[in-house]
Amino acid sequence: MHYLEDFYIKNLKYDLINKFFYKNVKKLPILKKIVLNFGCKTTNIKALSANLLALELIAKKRGSLRTAKQPNLALKIKKGNPAGCILTLNKNSKLNFISKILTETLTKIKQFDGLKSKCEKNCLSYTIKNSFNFTCLEDHSYLFNNLSNLNVTIITESSKKEETLFILKALQIPLKNK
Prior knowledge:
Elements: H1 3-20, E1 31-39, H2 45-59, E2 64-67, E3 82-89, H3 91-108, E4 117-119, E5 123-128, H4 135-138, E6 150-156, H5 161-170
Antiparallel strand pairs: 1-3, 1-6, 2-3, 4-5, 5-6
């Protein structure tokens, strides 16, 4: 069992019940999935392949190319052309990614005061601008000279924004105070 899953079962469930007054334990919110996304502003196959390889190295799981649903004249992207890379993390891989973010990536950022994020009812999304904070990408920096920004979306099964923020703060994910 992953240590974050153990923390959720032993501590966070009781905190959620006491704070939000749940009567049914089966309706407690949980982390559903994490979506990693590199949006490319070009259809250059080298840039797309570098982004896809970076996703696979970061998450240790195979990603997929995302195609454009609508044409974008400003970026010169036609409908159906590849426009980015996406990867969805479920089950144990989402917990491994959160622990990797907390222990490796965020500790390397100098003058870090929290994640600037957009929080909605059941998801939190933020952007990692410098992907070289991941140790797996440092060794191969010559391949990843011009990576796009990595968008990370954490999706929960909660009905309120406060519940989502409570879960993420309990998991020690540093959020910027507004």
